[in-house]
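Notes on consecutive records. When two proteins share a document, each keeps its own sequence and its own token line. Never mix them. Below: protein one.
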Amino acid sequence: MIENEFKVMLTEEQYESLLKLYDFKTIVQTNHYFDTDDLQMSERHITVRVRELDGKFYLQMKLPTSVNYSRVELSQELRVLPETLSGEELQKLSGEECPDVKRLGALTTTRGIWKFNGGEVDVDKSEYFGKTDYELEIEFSDENAARAVFAEISQKLGISSGAGVCVGKIRRFLEEFKKNKIS
């Protein structure tokens, strides 16, 4: 599946205001991120995670595409949360040659979801390594509808028209991982 999304970081105040604008359904999910000690997958712009949601585990890989706001997303259900994943298992899922990877840590997100015709607004509060941040994601199949919803939200929250794509969760997680020298 190709994932198309716009993302922008929010302040805590913008996050709280946005939650009041629409009728959001709330879920809590935890992403357990995996990589090598020297972050080979990250350097290739490949995300490997196991998403924990409602007591189930999903191995997910995100691979780059030629479009800035799009990535290929692959997924398969797992029975348990592993501490390591073999390169062979990752290659079966993605078709990409991959090294063995280990679990680096987790990022837990409280997500508000509001669907519109052509997409979905996700407003996230993410917690990892003692840090909390807030993010707006608009995932879409209809780019024009998504741009209209983003413009409406931006106007209501005072998000600058120059706001662009923010650094994704995996990059923010890895930045904190490196700062904390977690091994």
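Protein two starts on the next line and is unrelated to protein one.
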Amino acid sequence: MVPESARNYQKTLRLPGGFLLQIRSIRPDDKAALAGAFRQLSGDSVHSRFLVYKRGLTEAELAYLTEVDFVHHVSLVATLPELEPERIVGVARYILINQEPAAPVAEFALVVVDRYQALGIGTVLLKHLANIAREAGVRTFEAFILRENTHIRELFEHCGFRVHGEAEGELLKMILDIGV
């Protein structure tokens, strides 16, 4: 996928529970909405996503997370246009960590605001991000997760990707074959 089509990505679909979900590319003007989504996360969700406890995102972090190039760093957000059109309820991103043309690998991260978890938003975000990655030639996602984070491991398997994990201290390095 050329960066321009990733930069302008937008899809709208209906979740199994009936909610209308919009998946779109993150934009630099999403800083306030992203900070708002972060404030809606529980301490456990923050820890699971960032692997540390933190109270907020700095201006530098907000710039890094919203001002992406859509080549090496791609990010999608989820909104519920019928309920809260301006509120981000989920974010997924990948960052290329191995750019060898024969086997590019990207680190993957995902978070869904707690009150919107278990609706299928994470599944949709992961599948759409994987489609963009495949079109860009990426066939493998890696994610470092806490060993006790069974929800994300179930999500990876639910999406139908071949997954295996490697223990690295208190973390698991999950490797997803998204080329299927």
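For the record: The CA atoms of residues 139 and 178 lie 5 Å apart.
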